[in-house]
Design goal:
Blueprint (H helix, E strand, L loop, with lengths): L1 H10 L1 H15 L10 H15 L9 H7 L5 H6 L32 H11 L15 H6 L2 H12 L6 E3 L5 E3 L8 H23 L4 E5 L5 E5 L3 H16 L13 H50 L5 H24 L4 H6 L3 E2 L3 E2 L4 H5 L8 H4 L5 H18 L30
Helix pairs in contact: 1-2, 9-11, 10-11, 11-12, 12-16
């Protein structure tokens, strides 16, 4: 019997195999998906890739498309640049920060060298002159020496630098990509600076001219100097406050008779006569004179810009000579008696530290961080301290009245920082 079954399976192998499969399926029911052939799988993969990435037709842009595989776009470059301050770097939308011919966001690098130049150039941050905007990246700040910092502070102070532009709100803008090769741009910039300095001269005879500075956080800020008319107004106000014996004081008004007499003497003599008359009026006149000389310098610059400025060497030479001449003019004005640097060097202390020895105190002050208005809006680097101290000593020798003014704050820098709406915040004096 067994032989018959074996013989039947052997003689009919296919039917026997089917019987065996049925037995196995009854024991362990398994449902398997139908298997696809290799050609079907390949066709499905190709169809899905076409849906996700549409293929562009070949055109004249095909070399750019091929170059894209080797050199990334500007947006791709920015994604891999180091962080400027914290978090992931954000792409600068200001096209001035991207030098020609890289202004086009879809520009393709032609070589590895050019691509690296684009990376290095885009990592720079150009100050826009807007209040509160970063002036320079930490990398740029580390790369600047003390002489360059001093030059920047002076060119931000008044109009005239070839790459420093006065905005309608009174703040300064730095744009190193300005096209000086154009005759109209080059000569027109000189004439605009001359007109702006003339306006600043009249402003300093009135309420005071605005100026731009870089604060201790490295951001652009705008403040206002104290003009001649405003100085006289402060004098009248201080005299009346002194004669009222502090009745208008809201914080810590004098109570006893001795306190009222001391208050009146401070307001009338120290704040009114010394700070407003002896120091304030000459300061306002110095500032107006500085702007008048700068306007003359700007008008003179138009001549070489119109002649030798047609060549690259001539333009560079003109910029170097006249920018340095303006910085020298500001330096001479600062170290003259009652000038801004003169008051810092002769200061016997400050509101931050109290009484200190003149000359020596300014040398020991930090570069930034003091709240006293004589130091608050300058970057008092070692280079600045040395040249201002030496200049003030020579100024004292020439004028014979360089006596230290004990803890008297400069009237010219008491114009507080501008508010967001462009209005000046009145001084407490």
């Amino acid at each position: 019997m067994g032989d018959v079954q074996v013989n039947s399976i052997q003689t009919d192998g296919i039917s026997g195999l089917n019987q065996w499969n049925q037995i196995q399926q009854n024991k362990v029911p398994v449902s398997k998906p139908p298997q696809k052939s290799f050609e079907e799988t390949l066709r499905e993969t190709q169809s899905k890739s076409k849906e996700k990435t549409p293929v562009k037709e070949e055109s004249s842009e095909w070399p750019q498309i091929k170059a894209r595989e080797r050199f990334p776009l500007r947006s791709e470059v920015v994604e891999h640049l180091p962080d400027r301050q914290s978090g992931q770097i954000q792409e600068d939308q200001d096209q001035r920060a991207w030098p020609a011919p890289y202004n086009a966001s879809q520009y393709r690098a032609k070589s590895i060298r050019e691509f690296r130049e684009i990376q290095a150039q885009h990592s720079r941050r150009i100050p826009k002159g807007e209040e509160g905007s970063p002036a320079y990246t930490p990398q740029e700040a580390r790369g600047l020496n003390d002489m360059q910092i001093y030059k920047q502070d002076q060119l931000f102070n008044i109009p005239g630098g070839d790459f420093y532009f006065l905005k309608p709100d009174g703040s300064m803008e730095y744009n190193p990509e300005y096209d000086h090769s154009d005759f109209g741009n080059r000569v027109g910039k000189d004439l605009q600076d001359a007109a702006a300095n003339l306006k600043y001269a009249f402003d300093n005879l009135g309420e005071g001219a605005k100026y731009t500075y870089i604060d201790k956080e490295g951001r652009m800020q705008t403040a206002q100097k104290t003009g001649l008319l405003k100085t006289l107004g402060n004098f009248v106000k201080n005299v009346f406050d002194g004669l009222n014996f502090g009745k208008n004081e809201t914080e810590n008004p004098p109570e006893s008779a001795i306190q009222k007499i001391g208050y009146a003497g401070k307001k009338v003599f120290l704040d009114g006569f010394v700070k407003n008359i002896i120091l304030g009026i000459p300061q306002a006149m110095l500032n107006a004179g500085e702007n008048l000389f700068a306007a003359t310098l700007n008008a003179m610059e138009a001549v070489p810009d119109a002649t030798i400025g047609t060549t690259d060497i001539g333009r560079k030479l003109t910029t170097t000579v006249f920018d340095n001449a303006q910085v020298t003019l500001s330096y001479i004005t600062d170290v003259m008696p009652t000038g801004e640097a003169w008051l810092r060097v002769h200061a016997a202390g400050s509101k931050d530290d109290g009484f200190r020895l003149p000359y020596l105190y300014n040398i020991k002050t930090p570069q930034q961080g003091l709240e006293d208005m004589r130091w608050a809006h300058v970057r008092n680097t070692p280079f600045r301290k040395v040249i201002e101290t030496v200049g003030c000593i020579f100024s004292d020798m020439l004028t014979f009245h360089g006596l230290p003014i004990l803890s008297l704050e400069s009237e010219v820098r008491t114009g507080d920082a501008m508010t967001k709406d462009g209005q000046s915040q009145p001084s407490s004096e």
